[in-house]
Amino acid sequence: MAKTTKMFKLVLVILVCSISLNLVFVFKMVNVLGGGDHHYFLELSWTKRAAAEAEYVAAISCSGHGRAYMDGLILDQDGNKEPVCECNACYGGPRCSQFLPSCAADANGGDPYFLEPFWMENAASSGVLVAGWHRMGYSFNFQPFMVMSKELESHIRELHALVGNAVTEGKYIVFGVGSTQLLNAAVHALSPQNSSSPARVVASFPYYPLSKQQTEYFNAVDYKFEGDASLWKNKSDAATMNLIELVTSPNNPDGQLKWAQLQGPNVKAIYDRVYYWPHFTAISAPADEDIMLFSISKLTGHAGTRFGWAVVKDESVFKRMSTYVLLNTQGVSRESQLRALQLIKVVLEEGGKPIFDFGYTTMSSRWEKLNETLSLSRRFTLQKIGAKYCNFLHKIRGPSPAYAWLKCEREEAKDCYAILKAANIIGRSGSLFGAEDRYVRLSLVKTQDDFDQLLHQVKKLISDEGSAKAI
Ligand SMILES: Cc1ncc(COP(=O)(O)O)c(C=O)c1O
């Protein structure tokens, strides 16, 4: 009997110890790192320094008009190295608190900082920490020429299915160092090899300038830039020539949805779809072209990550594009792929609602404000974009283009860029897009500070127009 009691006590002690250990473990579990749907049951060890450093730099206040980066400029004061604030345009001082009133509104570039506040708001879910040994080799899983993360590819397919902006089923995906690399990879893949006559690369006006610049710069023997697509519409020799039409839809600079102008047995089209997201346009149907280019730059705003992808129907085109990327850069940096994966995971959260609501609301409000201001003017007009039903947002939505395509209406106003420059507004001349110089592109995707300054200078220009009339 005494032996049984002893035995019972021993079992009880073991049981209590086991429960206590489990409880300790559970308490550690409670001290979790949240992230998306996952919970990690580990206490931090080697990541502590990196995490602390990241949070330290992120906490540096730049007065809401700049930000400090871990690899940013360093101020060396009394032997202390400190990251400094990099200020938005028109702001200065060590903490970016000083507004520079006579500053010009720079609406030239396409840096998509309009999404920066979203990522600051979603800092916890979007950050990635790269281990010192993260994917050090040239390929994934030691498989030669495997340069793409399968996980990222499947998330991209999931994303297109969610947004409904592209058909990816039964199609191939190629990653590139931005869609910039893929644009040329696609031109190369569609050009005839060893032919005496190069493929003619065309685009309808106004077109995204890189198409022309890249094609001319690479000066390849198998393709050549030939200008306006519409000029080839009724040419009799067009039927026998290899033509590659670059179609940017929605278009940069004017935000219009475009379709290929040319048809025929030797005509191929490359669709640049980098702006086909709810931030910029209504999603009316999934795009289903043979070659479609997308980019993280315009989806999440991370142009610096240099990550884009092509959705390709034809296997031989896919293989030629993949070889191009392989020979050119050995694929895309694995750090970029890791970051793109995390960003896309955040985009997918709550069915994409948070980021696309934010993107659309921001862009449409900028468009409305600029449109309203310019509607008071007789000298300047903007492109017309109608309201449309969006299958993703489930509503009829107004325009929210990435760029304003401004026209100087007066007969004598042939150099619109110069007119705006004189009014402290820097845009991009129409001729760069193959259009007349009475057009100027104004970027709406930059920081809120950039946009506010643009609106301020445009208002001033319009009110000066009003006073001139009064005189
Ligand atoms: C129409 C178009 N295609 C491609 C790109 C380049 O994108 P990425 O950053 O992916 O190279 C841009 C950038 O502004 C663009 O406007």
Commentary on this structure:
The protein is of the alpha/beta class and 471 residues long. It has three domains: 47-103, Laminin (Ribbon); 150-351, Type I PLP-dependent aspartate aminotransferase-like (Major domain) (Aspartate Aminotransferase, domain 2); 353-465, Aspartate Aminotransferase, domain 1, CATH 3.90.1150.10. 37% of the residues lie in helices and 18% in strands. The chain contains 13 helices and 23 strands. The strands form eight sheets. It has a seven-stranded mixed beta sheet with strand order 10-16-15-14-13-11-12. A four-stranded antiparallel beta sheet has the order 17-20-23-22, with no helix packed on it. A two-stranded antiparallel ribbon has the order 1-2. The longest helix is centred in the N-terminal third of the chain and has 29 residues, at 2-30. It is globular. Bound molecules: pyridoxal-5'-phosphate (PLP). Pyridoxal-5'-phosphate (PLP) binds next to helix 6.
How many helices in DSSP terms? Answer: 13
Structural class given helices, strands, pairing? Answer: alpha/beta
Q: Can you tell me the CATH architecture of the largest domain?
A: 3-Layer(aba) Sandwich
Low-confidence stretches: 23-37
Instruction: Report helical residue fraction.
Output: 25-40%
Overall outline? globular
Ligand species: pyridoxal-5'-phosphate
Binned strand content: 15-25%
Which strand order does the major sheet show? 10-16-15-14-13-11-12
User: Largest sheet at a glance?
Assistant: 7 strands, mixed
Summarize the structure.
This protein is α/β, with parallel strands linked by helices and 471 residues long. The chain has helices at residues 2-30, 48-58, 116-121, 123-126, 150-163, 178-190, 209-218, 296-299, 315-329, 334-348, 353-374, 416-422, 448-470, and strands at 33-35, 38-40, 66-68, 74-77, 80-83, 85-87, 91-92, 98-99, 105-106, 172-176, 199-203, 223-228, 243-248, 267-272, 291-295, 308-312, 380-381, 388-390, 395-397, 403-408, 425-426, 428-429, 439-443.
